[in-house]
Design a protein that fits this description.
Structural class: alpha/beta
CATH class of the largest domain: Alpha Beta
Strand order of the largest sheet: 15-16-17-14-13-19-20
Number of strands: 23
Strand content: 15-25%
Distance between the termini: 71 Å
Shape: globular
Length: about 475
């Protein structure tokens, strides 16, 4: 399966060779080299930004039908090739094939949604408080935007940044995660044939230290949308605010899943397993804190342990596999480190937490579940970003709500209950940007806003019509008679 083909950057409408290349390795099979992908240097990033800046005046004032048609074409090709692209995604990132195909389908639908948004641009026409004067409130494109995406959703997150950026008339400089460049390159190749003028979209692959920093600090970049780690996000915010560039950040999560005494046990177990462990737990919306009230706690722990024995870990492309590999050696080491930390702090390992041997060499880890944990343990405070979850026992709903909000993060929160009273109270009082009732904390729609509170997010929401808040600026015009 080894493929030594080289994949170049896409700058100013041309495929451009890079000074160096990096191997893209399949985490399910370390002998499988997907390809050699370009590593841009600072000069190539500058060329891409210059191309985007030059293309912006014409693109930002171009006809909305042309934008709509180009975006719709991208979405249609993604959907037509969902099995092929899903196979690539599973191969390079480690999601199971059904999950990978689902992510690709979502990316295609995102492009189609924003194709429609091109035709739904709206504003306000208002009377002034002054006689004979009227007011127009309109939205215009922000400018050149730098888009920096993570490795855990290698086509969906790029799609939900690129599509609105282009729909609202911006020009894009896109830097994907260095760990998973394959889907990003495939998406760029589709975009390159969709009818966008040269310079409107640019792909610069490479390290965050070189490519990301060059984008964030460039005075021609009017805004940066970033999804990734808290530390990097905070530094990006400092750099952007310092030069008064717009910034949008989606960062960490330590999402709670509350299980109340009155919950349906079977349903609660299934949504907890889905929340905590599917996609190998490598989702910012994954629930790693399972907060369980006393009356159901023991039955829940027992049922979770039983359910986890049926989870199959293996090669992402193998039929019947529930959970694929951890994405990289570094991430696997981090997961194993947190498992050791939890045990050393006194948490009880209920299930999993061991390496799994498969037919191929890869980063396979059985999901780990801890009980007898407390709110002060590191496993309860810090984001692991892997298939590791812990159960915290609390007395009642009030204690569960307090525990759920006891975190520096606020992305997603869930509750399992048959009580309308508690469900409604939790929706109102949970300090999270997204609340799930009797649903997994992971799993969101593309046509509604995505984002969190506190340390999870900064700036305006992503996805749906709320995306315009970041990718446009408001202009107020006064017209006299």
């Amino acid at each position: 399966m080894t493929d030594s083909k080289r994949f170049d950057n896409y700058i100013a409408g041309e495929w451009v060779a890079a000074p160096t290349y990096s191997s893209n390795i399949n985490p399910s099979d370390l002998s499988d080299v997907i390809g050699e992908y370009a590593q841009a240097d600072a000069n190539q990033v500058q060329t891409a930004i210059d191309a985007a800046s030059a293309a912006f005046p014409a693109w930002s004032t171009s006809g909305i039908q042309a934008r709509c048609d180009a975006l719709d074409k991208v979405g249609s090709e993604i959907l037509a090739r969902k099995e092929e692209l899903g196979n690539l995604l599973a191969r390079e990132e480690g999601k199971t094939l059904p999950e990978a195909i689902g992510e690709v389908s979502r990316a295609g639908n995102i492009f189609k949604f924003f194709a429609g948004e091109c035709l739904r641009l709206s504003g306000d026409y208002l009377p002034s408080v002054r006689p004979g004067v009227h007011v127009e409130v309109t939205r215009e494109a922000l400018g050149v935007v730098g888009l920096i995406t993570p490795w855990n959703f290698p086509i969906a997150i790029p799609a939900w940044k690129i599509a609105p950026a282009l729909a609202y008339g911006n020009c894009v400089v896109f830097k994907p995660a260095d760990l998973v460049p394959g889907c990003a390159w495939a998406l760029a190749e589709i975009i390159s044939r969709a009818g966008f003028p040269a310079g409107v979209f640019n792909l610069v692959m490479g390290s965050g230290r070189v490519v990301g920093e060059a984008i964030v600090k460039n005075p021609k970049v009017d805004g940066v949308s970033f999804t990734g780690s808290v530390g990097v996000g905070r530094q990006i915010a400092i750099n952007c605010v310092t030069r008064q560039a717009k910034v949008q950040l989606e960062m960490g999560g330590k999402n709670p899943q509350v299980i109340l005494d009155d919950a349906d046990l079977k349903q609660a177990v299934e949504l907890a397993v889905q929340s905590a462990f599917y996609s190998t737990g490598q989702r910012c919306t994954a629930s790693s804190r399972l907060i369980v009230t006393a009356g159901i706690h023991d039955k829940f722990v027992e049922a979770m342990a039983e359910r986890m024995r049926s989870i199959k870990v293996g090669h992402a492309l193998q039929a019947g596999v529930d959970i694929g590999p951890v994405v990289s050696r570094a991430q696997l080491d981090q997961d194993l480190g947190y498992i050791d930390i939890a045990q050393n702090e006194g948490a009880r390992l209920v299930a999993g937490g061991r390496l799994v041997t498969c037919d191929t060499e890869g980063y396979f880890l059985a999901p780990a579940l801890f009980a007898d944990s407390t709110a002060s343990m590191r496993i309860s405070r810090e984001e692991v970003f892997g298939p590791v979850a812990n159960i915290i026992k609390v007395a009642d709903y009030e204690a569960a709500l307090e525990m759920a909000n006891d975190t520096e993060f606020g992305l997603s929160a869930g509750i399992a209950t048959t009580s309308l009273k508690y469900a409604n109270h939790f929706k109102r009082h949970s300090q999270a940007g997204m609340v799930m009732v009797n649903l997994p904390t992971a799993g969101v729609d593309y046509h509604v806003p995505f984002g969190g509170r506190k340390g999870s997010s900064y700036g305006s929401r992503e996805q749906g019509r709320y995306a315009q808040e970041f990718y446009t600026v408001v202009k107020t015009s006064y017209i006299g008679s």
